[in-house]
Design a protein that fits this description.
The protein is built from nine helices and seven strands. By secondary structure, it is of the alpha+beta class. It folds into three domains: about 90 residues, no CATH class; about 70 residues, Signal transduction histidine kinase, dimerisation/phosphotransfer (DHp) domain (Helix Hairpins), CATH 1.10.287; about 150 residues, Histidine kinase-like ATPase, C-terminal domain (Heat Shock Protein 90, 2-Layer Sandwich), CATH 3.30.565. A hairpin with a 3-residue loop joins strand 6 and strand 7. Helix 4 runs antiparallel to helix 5, helix 5 packs parallel to helix 9 and helix 7 runs antiparallel to helix 9. Bound molecules: adenosine-5'-triphosphate and magnesium ion.
């Protein structure tokens, strides 16, 4: 017998069969003029039990097992290798019907999840394509407008020719910026971007980025500063180029969404073998309902304001990907009209 449970079922069915036949014989004996013969009833009971048992054991049970094997071999043709139910294990140790039922349920759940995932991917793809074309439309239409005007005679008008060419050039720059960001995101998402870890002085890198962005900050009268106590070297192990991208994105945001005369400060604190980095501003802030989606691609709190500033909503998505590629995390806290703090960690080299 293939397993205990099946054996029990076959025995019970045989007993039931034998009992029904014996009962039929007793009923016939009692209702007819024939004398009640207990020995005959017992012999018949035993004979029917043996016959039922043999039929179920040698014919019916293997027939079911064969059917199950066929179903499993059909399943194995349509399923990836790791989802094929383990036939031998099932038939030898567990009731095969229950096991097959479990496997089919497992497969159904897996398929439902896969379907859900595919639906998400599809809606993400549609949304992504929609966003990309939407973002590219504005600069492309601008270029078309300037070039058409120049072709229609503007080229000979000294009042506009150079100005329009410069504007078209700005729109081209914007397209290049969007394409660069999209390329970075794709590389980070597909895992084709390999980080190049090195040990370097993070506080020197922060000072350098602040110095570079100081000109833009000054236009808005914003002061950029580094926490005083970290004038000393702070060696981290990270991808220097990518972390620079993170700092530039976060500090540029603090300027773009900062208030006239505001302050942006980079602060550090040390915790075990990590450095916790905080980039804090006292700008316009973000209301709580936007915070959960802030790191999504193309997500902007105020689309008009962001686009005015040349934003695409890809900056924070890139930042998050870079930090996560370092096996670290980033979080945000913000209060409308008070300011925003972005916090992330990096591995220290001690
Ligand atoms: N420091 C900040 N203060 C207030 N709002 C912010 C701050 N940083 C980000 N935001 C909000 O989060 C949105 C997403 O930021 P993100 O950097 O991803 O995009 P962006 O700055 O609009 O464009 P870009 O792709 O050029 O970075 C911004 O549009 C802005 O609304
Ligand atoms: Mg940004």
């Amino acid at each position: 017998m293939k397993n205990q449970k099946t054996a029990t079922v076959v025995i019970l069915l045989s007993v039931l069969n034998a009992f029904l036949c014996a009962a039929a014989l007793v009923t016939w004996q009692l209702s007819s003029s024939a004398a009640f013969d207990l020995a005959l009833v017992l012999i018949l009971f035993f004979a029917f039990f043996v016959i039922s048992f043999l039929v179920l054991y040698f014919i019916y049970s293997p027939f079911i097992f064969n059917k199950i094997k066929n179903v499993q071999s059909d399943l194995s043709k349509i399923l990836p290798q790791n989802e094929i139910p383990d036939t031998k294990f099932q038939l030898d140790e567990i009731d095969p019907i229950t096991q097959l039922d479990l496997e089919v349920k497992k497969i159904t759940i897996a398929r439902q999840k896969e379907l859900e995932h595919l639906k998400n991917v599809d809606s993400y793809r549609k949304e992504y394509l929609g966003n990309v074309s939407h973002e590219l439309k504005t600069p492309v239409f601008n270029i078309q407008g300037y070039v058409s005007t120049l072709i229609d005679g503007g080229l000979n008008d000294p009042n506009i020719n150079l100005d329009y060419l410069k504007r078209a050039d700005k729109s081209i720059e914007r397209i290049i910026h969007i394409i660069d960001d999209l390329e970075t995101i794709t590389q980070l998402e597909t895992g084709s971007l390999e980080l190049e870890f090195e040990k370097y002085d993070f506080s020197a890198q922060c000072r350098d980025v602040l110095e570079q962005l100081d000109m833009i900050a000054k236009k808005k009268n914003i002061t950029l500063s580094l926490a005083k106590k970290f004038d000393k070297p702070l060696i981290v192990s990270a991808d220097k180029f990518r972390i620079r991208q993170v700092l530039v994105n976060l500090i540029t945001n603090s300027i773009k969404y900062g208030k006239e005369g505001g302050v942006t400060e980079i602060g550090f604190s040390l915790y075990n073998d990590e450095v916790i980095v905080e980039i804090k501003d006292n700008g316009i802030g973000i209301s709580p309902e936007h915070l959960p989606r802030l790191f999504e691609r193309f997500y902007r709190v105020d689309k008009g304001r962001s686009r005015e500033q040349g934003g695409t909503g890809l900056g924070l998505a890139i930042v998050k990907h870079i930090i996560e590629a370092h096996q670290k995390s980033i979080s945000v806290k913000s209060k409308v009209n008070e300011g925003t703090v972005f916090t992330f960690t990096l591995n220290r080299f001690i």
